[in-house]
Amino acid sequence: MDTKAMFKIGYGLYVLTTHDGDKQNGCIVNSVMQVTSSPNRICVAVNKSNHTHNRILENKFFNVSVLTEKASFDIFKRFGFQSGRDVDKFKDYPHVKMAANDVYYITEGTNAYISAYVVETIDLETHTLFIANVVNAVVLN
């Protein structure tokens, strides 16, 4: 089997955000897709070692900011190269707004955000697949 064939599958990149009551958090993910249109549901796969994973397991809601090709490398450094366990990823970060679910979404280098509420989880050993109802979606540009 040529496992390189798996690299031919198309992916996007996203900032997945949630909070733990007091602290907003987010991480970079590459596995988000709409799975049904009625009801409108998406799924997102998240590595279990990510702090954001545990927060979503606990509070059951999140936002997905859809990154564009113009997203700066700083977004990836901030949300992908450090853990929310150790740093406040949103400290001094001006490119955010608060969604109706009280979770930040990214406003620069993104073209849309989606707010969702988890209705089911599937254990994938190293990751959890969160299946969620879309409660809001906004095109930013």
Give an overview in words.
The chain is mainly beta. It has two helices and nine strands. It has helices at 51-59, 73-80; strands at residues 14-19, 24-29, 32-37, 40-47, 61-67, 96-98, 104-106, 110-123, 127-139. A seven-stranded antiparallel β-sheet has the order 2-1-5-8-9-4-3. The protein has a two-stranded antiparallel ribbon with strand order 6-7. It is globular. The N and C termini lie far apart (41 Å). The model has no long low-confidence stretch (mean pLDDT 94).
Brief overview, please?
The chain is mainly beta and 141 residues long.
Mean pLDDT: 94
Tell me the radius of gyration: 15 Å
**Total E-strand runs:** 9
Helix content: 10-25%
Poorly predicted spans:
none
Strand order of the largest sheet: 2-1-5-8-9-4-3
Question: Main beta sheet: strand number and arrangement?
Answer: 7 strands, antiparallel
End-to-end separation in angstroms reads 41 Å
Question: SSE string, helix = H, strand = E?
Answer: EEEEHEHEEEE
Q: What fraction of the residues are assigned to beta strands by DSSP?
A: over 45%
- The general outline is globular
- Supply the number of helical segments: 2
